[in-house]
Amino acid sequence: MKLTEKELEIVEILEQDARTKVVDIAKMVNISVNEAEALIKKLEENNVIVQYSSIVDWSKISGHEGVTAMIDVKVTPKRGVGFDEIAERIYRFKEVKALYLMSGAYDLSVIVEGKSMNEVANFVSQKLSTLDSVLSTTTHFILKKYKHDGTIFEKGEKDKRIVVSP
Amino acid sequence: MKQTKTYLSKTVEELKPSGIRRFFDLAAGMEGVISLGVGEPDFVTSWSVREAAILSLEQGYTSYTANAGLLELREEIAAYMENSFGLQYSASNEMIVTVGASQALDIALRAVVDPGDEVIVIEPSFVSYIPLVNLAGGKGVAVQTKKENDFKVTPAELEEVITHRTKAIILCSPNNPTGTMLNEQDLEAIATVAKNHDLVIISDEIYAELSYDEKFVSFAAIEEMRERTILISGFSKGFAMTGWRLGFVCAPKELTEAMLKIHQYAMMCAPTMAQFAAIEALKHGNEDVNGMRKSYRRRRNYFVQSLNEIGLECHTPGGAFYAFPSIERTGLTSEQFAERLLVEEKVAVVPGNVFGQSGEGHIRCSYASSMEQLQESIKRMKRFLERQF
Ligand SMILES: Cc1ncc(COP(=O)(O)O)c(C=O)c1O
Hints:
The structure holds 2 protein chains of 2 kinds.
Chain A: H1 5-16, H2 22-29, H3 33-45, E1 67-75, H4 84-91, E2 96-101, E3 108-114, H5 117-128, E4 134-141, E5 147-148, E6 151-152
Antiparallel strand pairs in A: 1-3, 1-4, 2-3, 5-6
Helix pairs in contact in A: 2-3
Chain B: H1 10-14, H2 19-28, E1 34-35, H3 47-58, H4 71-85, E2 95-98, H5 100-112, E3 118-123, H6 129-135, E4 139-144, H7 155-161, E5 166-172, H8 184-196, E6 200-204, E7 229-234, E8 247-250, H9 253-266, H10 272-284, H11 286-309, E9 322-323, H12 334-345, E10 347-348, E11 350-351, E12 363-366, H13 371-388
Parallel strand pairs in B: 1-10, 3-4, 3-5, 5-6, 6-7
Antiparallel strand pairs in B: 2-8, 7-8, 9-12, 11-12
């Protein structure tokens, strides 16, 4: 889908802050509110804007238990469907938060979230590695998230400018 | 006991302190102020640029550079001026790396002004021009522009103040404080005047990267103007590098040589680590600059439209990051308005009169602030206006 300049701007604004109000978006890109609403609807319907969600720093929430692992998976692709079929089998698991086809030493990068290392380990050994086309898996647990989807988790830098200047 | 004051030169004694200073003092002591009074980007210099400076320090580049600046940087500037604005300046003898555009202005004026020479400053204007002309021994002559003309100077207005002592005109486009950008036609009209009276044009193009609707045209690109133009620019605004104190000046060889004489005695060279940072900014900073420009443009659109909605009439500025709305309908002077807005609603703006007589009746609001701050400031200004007027 080819986007117009205005549509592209709307996508950029919403990607930065999904809560930007339509009236403000309309002003920012210099169109009417109705027009902005229509464009956003169109972007949603075409699945350009897939979903609105928040970036949460779960480590801030005491009592929260959770681990994230990145698993490198080697698979044998199937004639006719390549990697798509095995990818679909994997991403349908609710434990799988993200899945990418990679170039390089392995084929699929699977991001898995679980309550504990044990839970993730069980998922890998019972669900993932037992799939027919999976040749091998290497699991890396994430120890700390510094930056996620372009957002730095620590508080942003303070405005250090002097209050009035020429 | 002798009064210390008697030590002061007449020139300095006659310099007026900037009206901005007073507002700074007022606002600086207050809590919870949203400041739209800031004349610099709200972006921190991009990390790759900061990292390049750190690397230069680690490698021990802590000595002076050539007076005119690192040759590598000048070559990058030459390429940048060519690619971005279609201008050709020789890295070896037509440019000097300076301590901000501020120092570039200073050496430009000192290179062309003799005692008593007049330099025309188009108001509303950046606050430093007239004091710098005076410090160079010249006489700053203000010419007033009109809101109806988007604060663009007309040839007739210029002709009115030109005398046989007039040596130069300082241009600033995109403009601080009005945000007005001069297009090719506007520049051509000024060029005709400059040619007829054989004037030097000091063209402050520090905001050239921040133009939002039309392509920026440099005065030096106007036919036959290069030879009489001293082009001033720098890294402060477009590259978000105010604190690095790095700018540059481009001019024909003879003028550059003259400025270099002043520069070598008065400054030696611009800060070395900042020069290394600037090399990185020019080599790889293009995408960052584009991103910042886009972001300012959105905020400009939002802010200017909102100002008009709450009843502060404001033309759409073509560049820089200032809106310059009229507050005439309130019946207040710009100082009264700014002071009351600060005290009652804790929004700091700069009263237009500090930029010259024709700035009266206006306030300068910088929209280089986060969207949340801009939204909140609009809310407060709306409340302020509804309460009083
Ligand atoms: C029009 C204009 N010229 C020059 C300067 C000074 O810039 P620099 O930081 O490069 O000295 C400014 C900064 O506010 C400005 O607005």
